[in-house]
Design goal:
Layout: H1 6-16, E1 17-19, H2 41-50, H3 59-73, H4 84-92, H5 99-112, E2 117-124, E3 134-141, E4 146-151, E5 156-160, H6 168-177, E6 182-186, H7 195-203, E7 207-213, H8 217-227, H9 233-242, E8 248-251
Helix pairs in contact: 3-5, 4-5, 8-9
């Protein structure tokens, strides 16, 4: 109730949101703040299992392999809001994990595999208490020389009519401007994705995507390990914010203040 309460949701956006532009965020990645030697050891152990029998040659194949493995070995469940190593353990035990938890661990796997990655969120502008938002990733594929949207929670990629994978900006611009055909592909061939989930999180032109910048995994792991058993998670995040060690939400396509406009 505390984590998802609309009041706290809006307060978080008021504190963390900033307007930006496409050029400013072009080179930003999660890797800027998180080095390989700071990623918990358990990620390396699982990573060796993921790629034990298959060695992808391209970045896109690597992230597809990662997404597919996680999709097959993790059951969706309640939100966790715990340190990344604990989140990975709980999710692999089949005891929970929402989209933001999946994004959190996917970020770390990309770092140790030398893939530039970043995390995006989605909200409605204006805000609706009926939509809780969504989290997904974007990776930089060196062989394509571009960013590519990948949603490891639902296991999907987006493509244009030429069958080229799309970035986050490209995806939402096409949707808003209706300038071209857009297709999505489910990475797990045995998975049937509900179309309403795709529309709700991507194809709805009222969705406002924002890039999550400045998240330092080691910092949040430390705070969550100490405070999580005793304090609500929003207090932990607010403490990190007061210490000026927090992440921020950057909106490249929208004015974030539109979130607070009343219907």
């Amino acid at each position: 109730m505390f984590k998802r309460h609309p009041f706290l949701y809006l307060v978080r956006f008021r504190l963390l949101s900033k307007n930006t532009n496409i050029e400013t965020i072009a080179d930003y990645s999660y890797n800027n703040h998180n080095s390989k030697d700071e990623i918990p050891e358990c990620f390396y152990e699982i990573n060796s299992r993921i790629f034990e029998s298959y060695k992808p040659k391209t970045d896109l194949d690597k992230v597809k392999c990662l997404s597919l493995w996680l999709h097959k070995h993790i059951k969706k469940g309640p939100g966790l809001s715990v340190s990344s190593d604990v989140a990975l353990k709980i999710m692999l035990e089949g005891k929970g994990g929402v989209c933001s938890d999946m994004v959190q661990i996917f970020n770390n796997f990309c770092v140790i595999n030398d893939i530039k990655v970043r995390e995006w969120g989605a909200t409605l502008a204006p805000f609706s208490k009926n939509y809780g938002g969504h989290s997904f990733n974007e990776v930089y594929c060196k062989e394509l020389s571009k960013w590519v949207l990948i949603d490891p929670y639902w296991g999907i990629l987006f493509f244009n009519k030429l069958k080229l994978p799309l970035s986050v900006i490209e995806t939402y611009k096409i949707i808003r401007e209706n300038i071209s055909e857009i297709n999505y592909v489910v990475i797990d061939k045995n998975e049937v994705l509900q179309k309403e989930n795709v529309y709700k999180n991507y194809l709805n032109p009222d969705i406002a995507p924002f890039l999550i910048c400045g998240y330092h995994n080691k910092t949040y792991d430390k705070f969550l390990k100490v405070t999580r058993p005793y304090l609500p998670v929003f207090i932990t995040h607010f403490t990190v914010f007061l210490l000026n060690k927090s992440y921020s939400y950057k909106f490249p396509l929208d004015n974030y203040k539109n979130i607070f406009i009343k219907h």
